[in-house]
Amino acid sequence: MKPSSAIVGAGLQMMPNSMKVLRRIGIEDRVRGTSFQPYSHLNRVWDTGEILRELPMPESLFGAPYLCMHRGDLHEALLAGVPAASVHLQKKLAGIDERGSQVRLSFEDGTSAHADLLIGADGVHSIVRDIIVGPDEPIHKLYGYDAWNVPLTSTEARV
Q1: pLDDT digits (tens, 9 = 90+) for 17-43
Q2: What is the pLDDT of residues 93-109, one digit of tens each?
Q3: Do both 72 and 4 map to the same domain?
Q4: Which of 6, 13, 44, 105 is most buried (CB neighbours < 10 A)?
Q5: Rounded to an integer, what distance in angstroms lies between the CA atom of residue 37 and that of residue 22?
Q6: Co-location of 80 and 112 in the same domain
Q7: Domain tally for the chain?
């Protein structure tokens, strides 16, 4: 039995360059089946819904779709592509060491693992990103904005 992704956050957007990676590892079709494809990426005023910026994202322009999906659906698609025995939950990454064509992962509990590929799908507080490119200054501290994630039904979300 495969591990459950359980509670893993909310929605995410997969830009065309990300979808090309999922295509390459063979899970694009599975992800398309649990997502939706908006025509464009919109930035709106929070209380009026007025469109501030629109970025069209047609698949024909980028060679891959722009998709929106639940994080758990992405995790399930990634899990479906590997043997259940190769997934270990409740591990906290402490280090990454590239060795030739492999990556050595070190964990806080003292264990380690080797892999041909590392996918950093560990969210907004990404340990993988922090190790590879360094920690980011949270954008709300740079610009004075906060964003809140509140699940709403389609009726509740109407402005």
Answers
A1: 999 999 999 999 999 999 999 999 889
A2: 999 999 899 999 999 99
A3: yes
A4: 105
A5: 15
A6: no
A7: 2
Model pTM score? 0.65
Calculate ∠ Cα 41-15-105, nearest 5°.
140
Q: Following DSSP, what letter does each residue of the chain receive, concatenated? A: -PPP--S--SEEEE-HHHHHHHHHTT-HHHHHTT-B--SEEEEE-TTT--EEEEEE--HHHHSS--EEEEHHHHHHHHHHTS-GGG---S--EEEEEEETTEEEEEETTS-EEEES-------TT-HHHHHHH-PPPPHHHHHS---------TTTT--
Domain containing 27 equals 1-84
